[in-house]
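Handout, page 2. Input:
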Amino acid sequence: MNNLEDANYINRLYDELNSCRNTLMNDLKNDKECTKERILNQKIMCVDNLMKNILKYRNINTKEKLKGDL
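Output:
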């Protein structure tokens, strides 16, 4: 993959995870009886960790790209 394809892939992946997180947050808000609260919170934490790692990877790629441009 070249840098542009890699960046586009990372952005799409981040957007999909953000959409998934928003869906989980809505499910959590709509869980009035708190029957799924623990499971939803665990899923949200997992998605948050994935998003954080994607951002780290994107930053590493950006730094590498800047080094190559110098």
